[in-house]
C-alpha cells in the first residue's frame, strides 16, 4: 500500500478506491496544500442509477469527507452521443424530454449521499448540456480538434475493442472522448476543477481531458480511477439474476435492495464494508474476521448501512425487521405486495412481481419445486394465486392480497 501524506489519497487508498493515479505525488501535494475540487460524470441513460454507479458516488463522498469539494456532472450533453466504453453496440438515442426526466429522477440519490450547501466543500450538481449544446461545430473543430490525433484515438480501448470485434463504431460515438475531454477543460476554467475521478474503464477519457487542459490552457490537472467492482464469483457489481439493483425506491423496493447486500458472498463482505460504508476500519476488520454462521452478522450490518445511506435509516430498519420476520415464518410488512385479480395464476403473479421475467420462466421454477405459497410447495403450473406469502427460492418473497 502506498503511503500518502494527504487525507484525500490516504482515505481513498485505505478504503480500496484507487486503481490508477495520473500523478500521485503531484496530486498528494496539491491535496495537502489546498481544497481540491473534483468531479465524476454520470450519463442519465435511465430513470435511476444502480449499484454499479454507487462506487463512483462513494468517490465523491470520500472527496467531501477528506475536506475537498465534489462536483456531480450529469451528462445531459454527452448522453446524446453515448459512451462507447465497454459497449458492443451503439447506445439507443434518447430524446431531450427523456433525458430531462431521467435527470430529475436520479438527482435525489446524490442528495441523500452528498452534502449540498454553499460552503467551501459543499457539493455542486451541473449538467454538461449547459455548454455542450451551445458549442458551434466549427468552433469545436478549430479549438479542440487540432489537439487530437486519429492515430492515438484508435489506440484507446473503447475504440480498439469495438474495432477488434468488428462491431460498428459510429462517428457520433467516436466524438464522445472529445466531448468528455472538453468537459474537463470547461470545468477547470469555470469552477477550478483539478481532479476527475471515475471507474477504471474511464482511464483513457480522463487522460484525454488532462492532456487537452494542458495543451489548451497549460493547466495542471489530475485523474484517479477506481477498480472495476466485481463480486467474488466474477460477476459485475450492480446486477442480479433479476436485473439491475436500482438506487431509486420506485424502481426497486427497499427490502429487495437490502436483501441484495445481505446476500453478499462471504469473501466480499470486508471489501464492500470498506467501499460502501463509513464504518471505522477497526470495526470492519472485526466483522470480516467472523467465521461460519457469524459472518451473517457482518452481512446484516452491510445491508443496514448501505440501505440507510441510499434509502434512509427507516427503510433499512423496516427491511431488517421484515427479513427477520420472513425467515422466522412471519409475513414481514415491508415485503413487496401484489393485489391478485380473479383467476390469476401463481405463474402470472411471479411474473407480475418481477420475480420471473416471463411466464415460461415462472413455469420452470414451479416445475423445479422452487415456488411456495404460505410455506407449501406449488406443484401445479396452473395453480391459482390466493392471499398469502409467495416465495421463490429462499430469497424472494412477496405478499399476495385479495
Write a brief caption for the model.
The chain has 402 residues and is α/β, with parallel strands linked by helices.
Layout of helices and strands, plus pairs?
Layout: H1 7-14, E1 20-21, H2 24-33, E2 37-42, H3 51-65, E3 69-74, H4 96-113, E4 124-127, H5 129-132, H6 137-143, H7 150-153, H8 157-164, H9 171-174, H10 176-191, E5 193-199, H11 203-217, E6 222-226, E7 239-240, E8 243-244, H12 254-262, H13 269-276, H14 281-288, H15 295-311, H16 313-327, E9 337-339, H17 346-353, H18 359-367, E10 371-373, E11 376-377, E12 388-392, E13 396-401
Parallel strand pairs: 2-3, 2-5, 3-4, 5-6, 9-13
Antiparallel strand pairs: 1-6, 7-8, 10-11, 10-12, 12-13
Helix pairs in contact: 10-11, 12-15, 12-16, 13-14, 13-15, 15-16, 17-18
Task: Describe the model.
The chain is an alpha/beta fold. Helix content is 46%, strand content 13%. It has helices at residues 7-14, 24-33, 51-65, 96-113, 129-132, 137-143, 150-153, 157-164, 171-174, 176-191, 203-217, 254-262, 269-276, 281-288, 295-311, 313-327, 346-353, 359-367; strands at residues 20-21, 37-42, 69-74, 124-127, 193-199, 222-226, 239-240, 243-244, 337-339, 371-373, 376-377, 388-392, 396-401. A 6-stranded mixed sheet has the order 1-6-5-2-3-4, with helices on both faces. Strands 9-13-12-10-11 form a 5-stranded mixed sheet, covered by helices on one side. The protein has a two-stranded antiparallel ribbon with strand order 7-8. The longest helix is centred in the N-terminal third of the chain and has 18 residues, at 96-113. The relative contact order is 0.10. The mean pLDDT is 87.
